[in-house]
Amino acid sequence: MRRVEKILSSTFVLLVAFAIVATATLRIDDFAVEIDVETSGELLVSEQINVRFLTPHHGIERFVPISGRTPWGETVKIDLRLEEVLMNGVPVPYTTRIRGSNRYLRIGDPDRTITGSYEYTIRYRVNRALLLTENTVRLYWNVTGTEWDIPIEQASAIVRFPDAVNLESVSSVSYFGYHGSAARGASGVPTEAGNLFFQSGTLYPGESLTIDISVPREMIPIDPPSLWQRLWWFLDANKYAALPLITLIGMFVLWAKLGKDPRKRVIAPAFEPPRDMHPGAVGVLIDDRIDLRDISAMLVGLAVKGYLTIHQLEDGQYSFHRQRATGDDLSPAEQAVFEALFDSPEVEERTLASLELEFYKTLPTIKSRLYGQLIASGYYKNNPERTRRFYVTAGLLVLPLAGYLAIQTMSLYLAAAIALSGSVVLAFSRFMPRKTSKGVRKLEEILGLSEYIRRAEVDRMEFHHAPDKGPELFEKLLPYAIALNLTSIWTRQFEGLLNEPPQWYVAGSRTPVFNAVLFSHTLSSMTHSMQRTFVSAPRSSGQSAWSGRSTFGGGFSGGGFGGGGGRGW
What we know:
By secondary structure, the chain is of the alpha+beta class. It folds into 2 domains: about 25-225, Immunoglobulin-like (Sandwich), CATH 2.60.40; about 245-380 and about 435-445 and about 490-540, no CATH class. The protein is built from 13 helices and 24 strands.
């Protein structure tokens, strides 16, 4: 069945071709091309087209592709410079322009028509058409092109090489037929002048002669283009590849105008927590986001203030015991944390394990109150999380667009450029929340406190007017050290100075001896356990508890550089 379909299809194509020949108003009697391969890598191409006009015409049109696309969608361009256009050996009027991916020529006098036989010579230079590999120099050239709508009685090509080329070491093959045909013609025939000669029979409209030649690299020692040349050629042919760079520049400008914090001043060590800021607010202002570590610090801060005690149980778990009701000294966010632990007046004790699959419900409230407090205090103009989410959403929306364009344009390069642009937006999202000048002044205090906690070792650094170390200072700054992720550094400063646990912490029987280093490990373990519990949500809840076409190819008729087509006018 398939053989019958192929026979019918071939018959139809032949009938159409004969119909075109019968009705053609002009014919090409001979299409002869000479190609000189120069040591510089340039090609000098001379086309001699013998045309017989059966009816009055002004002349012919000829177009040659100067760009095409690889199967992966990369655009490849050649540099074509027109040198000479003749008719019967003398200059003839013509116009030329770039139309799409072609260099277009209209040859002839618009005020005069001609009939009979004429010879047109089109001579041009081509750069970037040779394909260089490690071992070979390849000339893959479509001699006539597949887009002529008139028949070509015969076509030929002569290829001249530099004197150093030994034709016995040269491999060559020709292809003929319609675009994509793998039907092979004869190899190049060496001439007495040391050139390669290719020839075809009659080519019907849509058929072409294509030649493919490989020369050992050492016979034509062409210097390969530099990395910067290749990059420039790629960007020149694929201007969309600059999209990620343009996006990067654009996002940088946007960040400088909308996301960059006011300039900080010199940071001086601070021995007190920032005034009117609890540990959670400190944790947010340091990195413009609420981390689970910030909530753990708030919980420890509640214990330091006397609202609850933390007990280490025998199984390594922890429990929280209410000591008093919430007071006016708690911020709305701290109250939300306290209420998440003790959700009714009757609840006096709560284990950490009992908060699994429950605490996550309170996280949106805690986050909303904490961001609201910082905005109300004048440290931010906009909610940092909403700002960040806006740019994350914008970056993510670009990714399906990249996939859509990859399918529509068949260009993986274009899709990759757009996807990279989206990734740039995503990367900038974390830097776009902006503090006010007041917020930066408060950040300076936080950084000063962080500097003191980091470097408060007596044997390394002496701070003027620094407070004496003792249990009171340790407890006072501990929640802030947790929020700043400096717990272990802070506790090490008190090794040998702390002999018993804080009043708000009750150690289990597994810890008969108390010391600062051991307590540091206990705090780290406790805060990690808290963070895992706070974020745990049932899978069935359905929510997250926390978010912080190819012109150039190989091995067929119509492949390679050159090609195109033409018609009469």
